[in-house]
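Entry
Fold in C-alpha cell form

___
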Amino acid sequence: MNWPGLIFLCIKYALAIIVIVSIALAPAWLARQTKKNKTITAWVRIYSWLLGWTGIGWLAALYLAVKK
C-alpha cells in the first residue's frame, strides 16, 4: 500500500472541503462583518442555506450581504 500517496490524498480532500465550506459561508460572514441588522443577516443566511446550491441564490445572498 502506498501510504504517502494516501496521506496526500486525504490532505487534498480535507483542503478542498475547507475551501468549499468557506466559499459557501462567505455571505453570512460578510453580513456579520459589515454589521448588518439582524433581519438582513437572517435573510442572507436563508438565501445562502436554501438557495446557495444554485449559483443565483448564492450571488443574491452575497449581494444582500455587501450592499449599503
